[in-house]
Amino acid sequence: MSNDALGARMPSSSSLNVKSVEKAFVVLGAFSGRSRFLSLGDIAEATGLDKSAVQRFTRTLTTLGYLEQDKATRHYCLGRRVLDLSYEYLRSNTLIERAAPILVDLRRAVRERVDLTLPDGEDVLYVFRLQSKRETLHAALIGRRVPLYCSAGGRAILSCLPQEEAQAAIVRACLRKVTPRTLTDPEQIMAEIDKARRTGFAFQAEEWRLGELVVAAPIVDREGRPVAAIHVAGSTAEWDPAEFADRMGPQVVAAAQDVRG
Q1: pLDDT band of 132, cuts 50, 70, 90
Q2: Domain coordinates of the chain in residue numbers?
Q3: CB 3.0–4.6 Å: which of 33, 163, 165, 182 could bond 177 by disulfide?
Q4: CB 27 within 8 A of CB 47
Q5: Edge to edge, what strands does the sheet with 123-130 contain?
Q6: Cβ atoms of 142 and 90 closer than 8 Å
Q7: Is pLDDT of 79 > 90?
Q8: CA 8 and chain centroid, separation
Q9: What fold characterizes domain 93-260?
């Protein structure tokens, strides 16, 4: 699911779960894909918690720095302490550490935006981004989610799975048109995945953002399971789609192989 659909949700029940911790993270999840500032009523509506519980959780999370409150409106937004967790995750991830210098070299060679994504459920999650030109804010931020079925990285990752497993992932996905060019027919999507399996890289044109071309290659572990994907993104204003795929595909594949070692 994309960031816009992520939202707040209660985790599956388990006797080992600490319910108050679950609810605190559900409150934080209420800010995904919604307005930057939320009132207590907004949070209660998004989480299904009553207002008194929401008030206790927001007060605690504000004290800890994971939420911040606007003094004028009394509404809440995510706090800066959230970034501490993001930083520690990125710093401690050995795959990202290993890939970073290779991505820098790739960015220097192709002179286009270079990204690294990790698979996470039905999405790919952007964890490393190197811009080449002035772009929108969303194109520069880590943490962005894009569905597997309509992203080059997602299709590259699916191409490394057994056919039945890849098909099951497409069946589970909520297939919708993000742009007029987005493929939503399962057979057409599987054809693109099969093509990526043959060539070693996936390509999509304007299926997630109009005017954007993306080539991606998977990174696999020692068992051959996909653990990440490297993307190169360009513009239809500067590239013919076929030329972009032909030029960038081999370079992305080589970079992915270098990261694997």
Answers
A1: confident
A2: 3-81, 93-260
A3: 182
A4: yes
A5: 145-147, 123-130, 113-120, 226-235, 212-220, 202-205
A6: yes
A7: yes
A8: 17
A9: Beta-Lactamase (3.30.450)
DSSP state of 71: T
Of 61, 63, 52, 55, nearest to 24 by C-alpha is 61
Percent of the chain with pLDDT over 70: 92
- Exposed, middle or buried: residue 63 (CB in 10 Å: 0-12, 13-18, 19+)? exposed
Instruction: Considering only residues 141 and 112, tell me which one the structure prediction assigns the higher pLDDT.
Output: 112
Nearest residue to 101 (alpha-carbon basis) of 128, 125, 135? 128
What residues have CB less than 8 Å from 25, skipping those under 6 apart? 11
Residues 192-231: pLDDT tens digits?
999 999 999 999 999 999 999 999 999 999 999 999 999 9
Q: What CATH architecture applies to the domain 3-81?
A: Orthogonal Bundle (1.10)
Overall average pLDDT of the 68-95 stretch? 94
